[in-house]
Amino acid sequence: MELNREEDARFLVHHQVTEKKLLHLEKGVRKLGFQSGGNRILAGLLMASVMGLAIGLVFDGMVARTFSAIAVVLFLIFAAGVYSIFKAWFDAKKTIHLQYEAGKKDMNYDWEYRFFDDCYEVIGKNEASRVCYSNLGRILEFTGMLVLVEKGNVVRYFMEEDVEKGTAEELREFLERKSGTKTEFVSVR
Amino acid sequence: MEPLFAVRMTHDEDMYYNQVLASKQSAPAEKPGKKNFLSRVDLSDVIFGLLAFFVFYMTFPAEELAQRIVQSALMAGVFVLVLGQLNGNRRREKQRIAPDADERNQAEMIMESSGLAGEPCTVSFYEDSFQLENPGITTSYRYKGVSWIKETEQYYMIFWTRSTVIPVEKAGFYRGTPSQFKAFLEKKCQKTIMKAR
């Protein structure tokens, strides 16, 4: 595949994969998933548990016992949910660390992104892709990180500070215009 | 430049199903010998049992503590046994009717989320690289970056990374043959192709 000339690119990005960036991406993806329902489920469980306990306190006898039991069970499920979120995060952290260390030996961590008028090119050590903007399904911004989700479940990402030609703001607007999608913002600490 | 081998395929359920099969690590062989009771106990059963015990303990009206504990423990035991039996029956029935249902479901999910269902794609193999062409995206790979290669009945699956797989359908060759291709790929990538199933 013949690549376009670098100097013709409207925007240029040099991105090096680091463990910090991988963790940032993981946090963003996690938060994005959680926003789509996880937080509502946990809040619902907690509220139902509190209501059950309140009913248990107001009434006496069998009714009180039943509602207290349900409230405790719901609270346990809530606690298990919170625990599983933390466990999943620590497991992901461990996996990212291991994968990053394992990938170090291949040194396949340097990427260049060239954005032209009709397509963009992604160049790595052993691979190069040319992507039409119509292939861009979603544009995400995880506080300082731009994430491009392409058809075929391909995710590309880089920090806004990695943009070398043009600015991150201009690039985001350019991508929105070219792909016809709006950027979704996710706050990541 | 003309490719040495070229394959035309469609993003269909079979392609993703074969990908799921090839992605699976072969399960370690189960050691023979008797299993003790504790190793057969499932953690979810224990959690269910404890929750059931707690609910029965809170709701049973018996005044005497020992009686309440025994009643609750017995009821929780029966509850877990019945639930386990029902789950086991359902799993066995599902396995009997469709042994590959889980893999098929997973394949369908991946295909739908990819947004490429029904789209054509081509893979062309040259002397020092190979190229995958999907609508709107072309990617060129060097052979030395290939991690491993697996073979199913219908496909060769070239694993670029753990999550990036390049499928090559054996029935889709319009340049070269699958048997010539296998030897070529093993030589170029310096890898042995492993059978997936």
Automatic annotation (TrEMBL), chain A:
Record bears the keyword Membrane: yes
Keywords: Membrane, Transmembrane, Transmembrane helix
TM region(s), chain numbering: 41-59, 65-86
Domain of life: Bacteria
Name this polypeptide is given: YcxB family protein
Origin species: Enterocloster hominis
Lineage: Bacteria, Bacillati, Bacillota, Clostridia, Lachnospirales
From TrEMBL, chain B:
Statement: the UniProt record of this protein carries the keyword Transmembrane: yes
Ranges annotated as spanning the membrane: 41-60, 66-86
Residue stretches making up the YcxB-like C-terminal domain: 125-185
Species annotation: Enterocloster hominis
One Pfam family linked to the record: YcxB
Superkingdom: Bacteria
Keywords: Membrane, Transmembrane, Transmembrane helix
Protein name: YcxB family protein
